[in-house]
Design brief:
Helix content: 25-40%
Enzyme class: transferase
Order of helices and strands: HEHEHHEEHHEHEEHEEH
Number of domains: 1
Radius of gyration: 19 Å
InterPro entries: Amioglycoside_AcTrfase, Antibiotic_NAT-like
Catalytic activity: a 2-deoxystreptamine antibiotic + acetyl-CoA = an N(3)-acetyl-2-deoxystreptamine antibiotic + CoA + H(+)
Strand order of the largest sheet: 3-4-2-1-5-9-8
Number of helices: 9
EC number: 2.3.1.-
Strand content: 15-25%
Largest sheet: 7 strands, mixed
Number of strands: 9
Structural class: alpha+beta
Protein name: Aminoglycoside N(3)-acetyltransferase
Distance between the termini: 46 Å
Length: about 260
């Protein structure tokens, strides 16, 4: 069905305010921009709408993960020949917060990643980018072994009592649920590897161990949370959108995983 008029920065800002987003909020946004419909100015207008609503005291966060900068031995989409693995590990240029694009994170995340004033965390696999007064706090501490845990930007968002916005996507994309995984008493762990760019332009391959990231039941967790937890659902443009407090979501998911998952 053709929409009557194009969506604009102003109309999207109105939709976001009606959903409950407000000036000064700290919000992690997951998005599928295509779901919004035709927007005058496309993804730039979407970014402008979010930043307009948040205002000078709000902070916008997006995932800027790089799943292509991981150990090729684990790749499935698609796999690569084993003879390629040493070359990839040794010759990849290495993650650099300013140079390395994200992958599979969507057009909005890439737009915010390169927006003037944006800061990005240094994790070579699961980085986040942020713009606003709390951007430095959100992105400053991101150790290799805690890519999605309490010392990651997800943990910083939790401490800031921030929000999660699912713009045209569902809980399968809700990265904050990984924080709940990491908070399990003894979460299953797995090895990781990634290339990191050195100041002189060379690259070093790093390895570490961290909790397994498993999204297979995230939609189940999200549906269960929505039955009892605070969440507002509405439309931003044509996109079904959910806004929720991250702390309540993570607390619920931490208990849900403990009670419903088997190791």
């Amino acid at each position: 069905m053709t929409q009557d008029l194009p969506h604009t920065t102003a109309t999207l800002a109105t939709d976001l305010r009606n959903l409950g987003l407000t000036g000064g909020d700290v919000v992690l946004v997951h998005s599928a921009v295509a779901a919004i419909g035709f927007v005058a100015g496309h993804v730039q207008a979407v970014a402008e709408a979010l930043l307009t609503v948040l205002g000078p005291h709000g902070t916008l966060i997006v995932p800027t993960h790089t799943p292509n900068n991981t150990d090729p031995a684990t790749w499935e989409r698609p796999p690569v020949p084993e003879t390629w693995w040493p070359v990839i590990r040794e010759q990849s240029p290495g993650f650099d917060p300013q140079r390395t694009p994200s992958r599979w994170m969507g057009a909005l995340s890439e737009t915010i990643r390169t927006w003037p004033g944006t800061l990005r965390s240094t994790h070579p696999e699961t980085s986040f980018a942020a713009i606003g007064p709390l951007a430095a706090t959100i992105t400053a501490d991101h150790p290799l072994h805690d890519g999605l845990g309490d010392r990651s930007p997800l943990g910083a968002l939790y401490r800031a009592d921030g929000k999660v916005l699912l713009l045209g996507c569902d809980h399968a994309n809700n990265t904050s649920l990984h924080l709940a995984e990491c908070r399990q008493p003894d979460p299953p762990a797995e090895p990781h590897g990634a290339a990191v760019r050195n100041p002189d332009g060379t690259s070093t391959w790093h390895t570490w161990t961290s909790p397994v990231a498993d999204e297979t039941d995230f939609d189940d967790i999200g549906r269960a949370y929505e039955k009892t937890g605070p969440v507002t659902t509405g439309r931003v443009g044509n996109a079904t959108t959910r806004l929720m407090p991250q702390r309540a979501l993570v607390d619920f998911a931490t208990t849900w995983i403990t009670q419903n998952r088997t190791t």
